[in-house]
């Protein structure tokens, strides 16, 4: 969502930002709708004022015994009533059209976002750890899990269809351990407050964070009108929607471990084997509400918090800054953290950490104010995965595999595994 005043004053800059997103120059259409909408609003206000004035004059004319003037004024008031109803409907419809257009457009990126068309053009920022070199051919996670009898895609498909999995025994416990470990780390050491939120939300919440209207096909909607969350960014960020926050309380940092649901509408043929791209998965989310002055620093902090999970698990990774052709709809700047997967012999995304500026806050009408002042401003929102639990399980399995197909449990997870240090022995 955008500030119309900014577009009025900076149409060329707005169009240049849209062009970087592969969008056409929208300012002309937006400003034409805006001008028409404001003209209607002015005409409505003028007609309303005249109606009020004429209504008062009716009484004055009757008091003076001037019935002709009173009848003329009554006729005028009747006509104005019909005119106002038509004007208000036109204004409403035009406002919805303008709002719908603004809601459909992606956020403006920061100037330092690299140019590029796809993930191949992302900019590597740093790496950590060296990819493990096995003395045997590394297996992919699904090969390991199925051989252990602890990862069952066939029976999950019998229950729910493709892109679902059933985990069993120690492997199911390992996934649970990973999620608990992440939550404990982010709450005890990184200052995030744990919040347990619903996975069913109203349409307004999905609009607030930018999942709607553009990405409706990639989400699941129930027959009650509720949506299953594609990420708990939706619930955590919307907690304070419609509120005015005290700036002294910012930043507010939330985390949760939740189920997430995605239709994966645009991923036909991609990652059809294994757990990389599922319709249902678990993720630990990190959300921050902060002031504009703090948001850039908060993005660096959030990314470091997510990285710490991989460091504690001794999983090699790299951080990349997403290019213009790969960055998400709502983001102004994004860092992806990609973990090394020996079975695939490449880095794969395990977290995205983004700053959205006031884009989401405008959509959900969330502001902040310094105590004692009347002036308010929109907060800045950020989110990041800290991390995707299923993909972390995949990374642990592939990086900690042994030649005989067993899996070493990372030391940081052993307290959550009842002391189990090997799976499959």
Could you explain how this protein is built, in words?
With 425 residues, this protein is an alpha+beta fold. The chain contains twelve helices and 18 strands. The longest helix has 38 residues. The protein is elongated. The relative contact order is 0.14.
What is the overall silhouette? elongated
Report the CATH topology name of the largest domain.
Answer: BirA Bifunctional Protein, domain 2
Mean pLDDT: 95
So, CATH architecture of the largest domain?
A: 2-Layer Sandwich
In this structure, how is the largest beta sheet organized? 8 strands, mixed
Widest β-sheet, arrangement of strands: 1-11-12-13-16-10-9-4
Q: Please tally the β strands and state the result.
A: 18
Helical fraction equals 40-55%
Number of domains: 2
Uncertain stretches = none
Task: Look at the structure and give the CATH class of the largest domain.
Answer: Alpha Beta
By DSSP (H or I, 4+ residues per run), the number of helices equals 12
Alpha-beta classification = alpha+beta
- Portion of residues in beta strands equals 15-25%
């Amino acid at each position: 969502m955008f500030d119309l005043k900014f577009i009025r004053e900076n149409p060329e800059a707005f169009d240049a930002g849209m062009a970087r997103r592969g969008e056409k120059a929208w300012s002309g259409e937006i400003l034409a709708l805006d001008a028409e909408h404001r003209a209607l609003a002015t005409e409505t206000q003028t007609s309303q004022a005249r109606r009020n004035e004429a209504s008062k004059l009716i009484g004055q004319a009757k008091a003076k015994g001037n019935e002709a003037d009173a009848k003329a004024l009554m006729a005028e008031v009747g006509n104005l009533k019909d005119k106002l109803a038509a004007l208000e409907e036109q204004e409403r419809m035009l406002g919805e059209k303008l709002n719908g257009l603004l809601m459909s457009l992606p956020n403006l990126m920061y100037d330092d976002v690299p140019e590029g068309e796809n993930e191949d053009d992302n900019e590597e920022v740093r790496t950590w750890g060296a990819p493990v070199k096995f003395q045997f051919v590394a297996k992919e996670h699904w090969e390991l899990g199925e051989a252990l009898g602890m990862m069952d895609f066939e029976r999950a498909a019998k229950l729910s269809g493709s892109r679902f999995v059933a985990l069993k025994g120690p492997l199911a416990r390992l996934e649970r351990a990973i999620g608990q470990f992440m939550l404990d780390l982010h709450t005890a050491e990184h200052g995030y407050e744990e919040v347990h939120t619903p996975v069913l939300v109203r349409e307004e919440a999905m609009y607030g964070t930018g999942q709607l209207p553009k990405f409706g096909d990639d989400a699941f909607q129930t027959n009650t009108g509720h949506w299953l969350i594609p990420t708990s960014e939706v619930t955590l960020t919307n907690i304070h929607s419609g509120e005015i926050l005290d700036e002294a309380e910012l930043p507010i940092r939330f985390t949760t471990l939740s189920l997430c649901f995605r239709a994966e509408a645009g991923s036909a043929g991609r990652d059809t084997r294994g757990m990389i791209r599922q319709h249902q998965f678990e993720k630990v989310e990190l959300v921050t509400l902060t002031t504009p002055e703090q948001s850039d620093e908060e993005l660096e902090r959030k990314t470091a918090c997510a990285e710490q999970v991989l460091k504690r698990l001794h999983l090699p990774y790299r951080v990349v800054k997403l290019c213009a052709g790969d960055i998400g709809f709502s983001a102004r700047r994004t860092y992806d953290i990609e973990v090394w997967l020996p079975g695939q012999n490449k880095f794969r995304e395990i977290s995205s950490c983004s700053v959205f500026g006031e884009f989401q806050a405008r959509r959900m009408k969330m502001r902040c104010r310094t105590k004692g002042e009347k002036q308010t401003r929109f907060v800045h929102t950020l989110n990041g995965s800290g991390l995707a639990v299923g993909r972390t399980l995949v990374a642990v399995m592939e990086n900690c595999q042994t030649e005989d197909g067993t899996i070493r449990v990372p030391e940081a997870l052993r307290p959550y595994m009842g002391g189990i240090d090997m799976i499959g022995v």
